[in-house]
């Protein structure tokens, strides 16, 4: 491939330089890193172990340039949008790339957009005049990573060896990095300064998504005339009305689905909204990769909507246990919490044997992660969480969750601050082994400094990381009657890693290679994995639902949720009965039997008046009959049985 030149077509510039000549011009160092062919002459590993001098002759294998010079001052920036992790990963990477390109353009930062390979990933290159310190680049990288899920920002945090394939360079799959937009002379004669990077970091921080959906903002202008056909939260209405899906249609489309799932919409409601809602443009058209969008086929749009709807329901199920959001009163406390949760996640990674050797240990890991998630989301040291809610968050039964909580408490990882009280859940706290030292200084609540943006960015990244872990495992297929909780853990790991060998997976799980082989074979049999040249990788399509139906575990988590809700209602009913029995006769409300009609006026103000609790022939409480009435929906205020005329 040659880079032709001084001609510009559709804003793309090419040059008379060959890719190797361009590399020699822009490389901050006197050598590049190159791949090494194996004994069979093929390139099996995506690694660049050997240095190659910038001489006249180009390497015979793919190469990459390092972004910083010998003094670890960055001369180039490369934002790598990874197109891995699902059959819609390419579109998400392209949308994220276009969104960043729009911000760069708005801030007058010259850049080059490349399709990195035939896989569809994107590279956004920026040349730096005079270089930029590693700390400044790290600030930009962290803000961009918090804003765009598909961004692999590791190279921007590594001034020593961070590197990427330059425009025009070959890929090991036989393709090359193709310039799509921009002028390559912005890399040979850069104009971007450190001050420009400061403005870019600030613009990215302003656009970073919030840790909680209700705090999110639309990514574009709103269509004031649009009205959802069913009730939605205020933030959901904003995303639904975002014109053309805003700056990032794939992200906006998913936020619309998440809002719909949180509001209890059905799949038919979602299909109806996808036809007309401005914010759901992603399910009607697709990014062409050239700055335009083209219509999807009906089958493709329906298939994509179905997959994304299932994922949105998983995220909504995880987030429904969260308490009402509040602003942190003490930023020093939040700073310590963020540091502690980061430390917990690090400890779980570096000590896999402690958390993977037994089924009980795997359950304890999940419950500890869920408590860390609640602590991070609430910004409070002490969080209220029932065993049922924790179990539903991680896909475990209530008895397994209770056993895990007791084991974690006995091992000193958590403390129970208060036990359950009536319908109020127990309160838990992460132990001081994860906490900041007692000598740490706190700010006063009445005199807090301005919230540090970096703190909230780190919090957002940690929340997103934990949510990805929990939602990947939160599936019927990974329950005990399915493939098991550890299989879900391995499936979640393959989001973080493009591929895993048996040995690397065993090391990350903390189990033997034999046990790992069994898990991999089960996942492969369910068509969730595909053979990769470097081990095993996720299949492009998510077939967990189909696999769950085949082994007859589909609906397990929904049934468990319904059962737990019924148990809560029965318990609240019994507590009301106990309160009535302990009061004086004149203070007791008049209560009809549960089978009478109507039970109560649903429009009457004040607290709920429960019907009489079922009794056996000997006068004792009949909990089984009470559960029957609850399961039948008789106690529901909107029940047709209750509202029918007597």
SSE layout and pairing:
Elements: E1 8-9, E2 12-13, H1 19-26, E3 31-34, E4 50-53, E5 63-66, E6 74-81, H2 89-106, E7 112-115, E8 122-132, H3 134-147, E9 151-152, E10 163-164, E11 178-181, H4 185-188, H5 194-207, H6 234-240, H7 249-262, H8 267-276, E12 285-287, E13 293-295, H9 298-319, H10 331-350, H11 359-378, E14 382-384, H12 387-394, H13 398-410, E15 414-418, E16 427-430, H14 453-473, H15 485-496, H16 502-509, H17 513-525, E17 529-532, E18 535-538, H18 544-550, H19 556-582, H20 623-631, H21 640-643
Antiparallel strand pairs: 1-2, 3-4, 3-5, 5-10, 6-8, 6-9, 7-8, 7-11, 12-13, 14-16, 15-16, 17-18
Helix pairs in contact: 3-5, 3-14, 6-7, 7-9, 8-9, 10-11, 10-14, 11-12, 11-13, 11-14, 12-13, 14-15, 15-17, 16-17, 19-20
Structure description:
Strand 1 and strand 2 form a beta hairpin. Helix 3 runs parallel beside helix 5. The chain is 42% helix and 11% strand. Strands 9-6-8-7-11 form a five-stranded antiparallel beta sheet. It has four domains: 200 residues, DNA primase, PRIM domain; 107 residues, Methyltransferase, Methionine Synthase (B12-binding Domains), Chain A, domain 1, CATH 1.10.1240; 209 residues, no CATH class; 81 residues, no CATH class. The protein is elongated, with a radius of gyration of 28 Å. It contains 21 helices and 18 strands. With 646 residues, the chain is an alpha+beta fold. The N terminus and C terminus are likely disordered.
């Amino acid at each position: 491939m040659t880079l032709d030149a001084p001609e510009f077509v559709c804003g793309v510039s090419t040059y008379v330089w060959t890719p190797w000549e361009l590399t020699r011009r822009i490389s901050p160092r006197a050598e590049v890193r190159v791949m090494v062919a194996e004994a069979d002459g093929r390139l099996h590993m995506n690694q660049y172990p050997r240095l190659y001098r910038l001489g006249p002759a180009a390497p015979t294998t793919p190469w990459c340039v390092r972004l910083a010079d010998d003094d670890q001052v960055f001369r180039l920036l490369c934002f790598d949008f990874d197109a891995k992790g699902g059959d819609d990963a390419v579109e998400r990477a392209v949308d994220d790339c276009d969104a960043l390109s729009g911000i760069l353009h708005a801030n007058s930062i010259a850049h080059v957009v490349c399709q990195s390979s035939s896989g569809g990933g994107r590279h956004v290159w920026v040349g730096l005049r005079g270089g930029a310190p590693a700390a400044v680049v790290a600030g930009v990288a962290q803000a961009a990573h918090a804003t765009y899920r598909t961004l692999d920002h590791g190279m921007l945090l590594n001034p020593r060896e961070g590197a990427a394939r330059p425009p025009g360079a070959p890929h090991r799959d036989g393709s090359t990095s193709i310039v799509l937009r921009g002028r390559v002379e912005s890399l040979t004669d850069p104009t971007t300064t450190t001050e420009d990077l400061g403005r870019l970091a600030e613009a990215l921080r302003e656009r970073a998504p919030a840790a909680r959906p209700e705090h999110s903002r639309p990514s574009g202008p709103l269509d004031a005339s649009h009205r959802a056909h069913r009730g939605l939260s205020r933030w959901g209405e904003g995303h639904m009305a975002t014109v053309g899906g805003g700056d990032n249609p794939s992200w906006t489309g998913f936020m619309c689905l998440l809002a719909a799932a949180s509001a209890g919409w059905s799949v038919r409601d979602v299909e109806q909204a996808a036809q007309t809602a401005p914010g759901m443009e992603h399910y009607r058209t697709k990014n062409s990769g050239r700055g335009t969008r083209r219509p999807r086929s009906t089958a493709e749009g329906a298939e994509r909507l179905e997959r994304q709807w299932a994922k949105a329901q998983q995220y909504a199920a995880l987030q429904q246990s969260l308490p009402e959001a509040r602003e942190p009163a003490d930023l020093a406390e939040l700073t310590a919490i963020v540091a502690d949760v980061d430390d917990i996640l690090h400890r779980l990674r570096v000590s896999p044997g402690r958390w993977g050797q037994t089924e009980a240990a795997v359950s304890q890991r999940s419950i500890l992660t869920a408590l860390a998630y609640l602590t991070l989301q609430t910004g409070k040291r002490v969080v209220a969480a029932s065993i049922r809610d924790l179990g539903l968050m991680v896909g475990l039964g209530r008895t397994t969750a209770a056993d895990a909580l007791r084991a974690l408490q006995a091992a000193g990882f958590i403390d129970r601050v208060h036990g359950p009280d009536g319908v109020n859940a127990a309160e838990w706290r992460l132990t001081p082994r994860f906490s900041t030292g007692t000598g740490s200084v706190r700010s006063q609540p009445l005199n807090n400094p301005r919230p540090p943006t970096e703190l909230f960015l780190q919090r957002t990244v940690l929340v997103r990381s934990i949510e990805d872990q929990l939602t990947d495992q939160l599936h019927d297929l990974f329950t005990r009657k399915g493939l098991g909780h550890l299989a879900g853990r391995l499936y979640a790991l393959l989001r973080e890693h493009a591929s895993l060998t048996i040995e690397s997976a065993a090391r990350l799980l903390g189990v033997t290679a034999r046990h790992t082989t069994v898990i991999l074979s089960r996942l492969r049999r369910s068509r969730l994995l595909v053979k990769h040249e470097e081990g095993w990788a996720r299949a492009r399509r998510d077939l967990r639902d189909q696999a769950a139906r085949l082994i007859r575990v589909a609906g397990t988590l929904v049934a468990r949720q319904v059962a737990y809700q019924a148990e809560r209602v029965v318990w609240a009913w019994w507590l009301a009965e106990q309160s009535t029995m302990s009061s004086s006769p004149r203070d007791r409300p008049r209560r009809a039997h549960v089978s009478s009609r109507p039970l109560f006026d649903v429009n009457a103000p004040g607290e709920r008046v429960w019907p009489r609790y079922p009794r056996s022939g000997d006068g004792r409480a009949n909990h089984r009959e009470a559960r029957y009435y609850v399961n039948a929906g008789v106690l529901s205020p909107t029940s047709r049985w209750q509202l029918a005329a007597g």
